[in-house]
Amino acid sequence: MAKSPRTRPRMIVLHVVVIAGAIAMFFPFLWTFITSITPGAGFSIAPQLWPENPSFEAYRTLFTERPFGRVVANSVGLALVTTLAQLFTSATAAYAFSRLPFRGRGVVFAVYLATMMIPLQVLIVPLFAELKAFGLLNTYLGALLPTFASAFGIFLLRQAVNQVPRELDEAAKLDGAGHFRVFTQIILPNIRPALATLTVFAFMSSWNAFLWPLVVLRSPELQTLPIALAGLQGQYTTAWDVVMAGSIVSILPMLALYIFAQKYIIQGVASSGIK
Amino acid sequence: MVLPTALDAPTVPAPSRAPRSRKKPRASAGYVLTVLAFLLPSAIPLTLFVLGPMVAAAWISFTEWNLITPMEFIGWENYRSLLADERTGEVFLHTIGYIAGYLPLVYIGGLALALALNQALKGRSLWRGIYFLPVVTSWIAVAIVWRWLLNPNNGVVNLALGWFGIDGPGWWTDPDWAMISIILASSWKDLGFVMVILLAGLQTINPDLYDAAKVDGAGAWSRFRNVTIPMLSPSTFFVVVISLINGFQVFDQVYAMTGGGPGGSTQVVVQQIYDLTFRYGAAGEASALSWLLFIVILAVTVIQIIGQKRWVHYG
Questions:
Q1: Which of A106, A242, B140, B142 is 20 to 30 Å apart from A173, CA to CA?
Q2: CB–CB of A28 and B145 under 8 A?
């Protein structure tokens, strides 16, 4: 890129604007944290940028007076199972849609994609009735089953499988490999970045899921973080330090995952936008 | 189809090799089993927990049902009463109002950021990372945090406005400002998502196009207008389609920020579906409303897919 003297002031202004914007974007997180360590923050006490008597009392309240230890464990467990299930169902489906031609495949794929357009809200009532009939209301399994297959994951992995050169399959087949060996030994190792992207997305969507867990997990000891957080807001209407501590507990693991896997998350979002 | 491989070289005769399989007229039983083995792990959950309930929702929409006592078939009655009820129009208007505020804000903001971050900035990936951060957080946490930022009492936004002598509004406690509060929180959360999509689109534009435009004497604005915008149109199309689909389904942030209030001023379609089901025990009417919503989303999406030929350029 040519750097003429004329573009330098322009670049400085650009830096200032971008950095100021980033600070503004980050500020709500900072303010959330500051509020969480300001005892009694709320109606009468406004938090200050440098709290006078910072304390982690609000976090202690969460984990002693409220069952937040259990809630965090629930969220982690459900997210792990959902992620493993989606990796399995998405990878196998992606292989079928990319490598196993059969009559009506285009229609089946279109139906799969169409499920992305169905609002979860349309399904809530019948799903509720269905799981009630199976006796799965208020169970982990009931919360998990509807999350096992994801049209987004299938779409993402199919794009990746399509990009694996078919010559690799052909070579393995000449060596006598069947579809299962081609799948496990050729395809899976070659779509590792897409699998990483899906891992992060599946974990994230389970961790942040709200409506379905809200409907199916009624007992307090089964609740996940977003549900417990919404409940916290109802109970501690003016104790904003406790509510903000709950928000930090919910945000922090995603923050860690994001810093660790930024590349895959951004790649996943970016690739979904390219035809 | 015959692939040209080294094995096809005529110098080595391979008498034992079977003729290369052409398109088989009928699949063998083993092949059918293979297809099923790969397809069923996803087909079973999608059928049981998406497609099946979808059809069931259609059936339920023709019944009167409170989730407990047996369903009673009442034909088109739910749809008739929904269309006659002025609240139905209201909840759609609120939803469209949300989209009308959110989409321009998030698109123009995302585009400006993508253009800025497409330059050779120092620490570019750090800034990009910070702008994207809200995308990975949960809607509930975001809604709660924004309720606090926009709190009329001791909320930081009104405190800051106070420094300039401005008496801040009641935000989510004021019917005139509640939807604006939701739009602000939603735009903050999704800005980074739109930015990353558009940034990826910008990076696929061939730099030669800009050079050619420069040679033709095009200024910065003209290059933006005649190269960037058309070449970015597939990404723009994607952002608009996804935003409209998600926008019509807006719920989590409304539920956690206002619950549809105050005075029903932020009652959106999905909040109405939720209330009908779990508050008023009108699951049949809720299912009918959810089908109406689905049909609206489908129609809006199909119109965009048809309309894209007029403005989307695939390179």
A1: A106
A2: yes
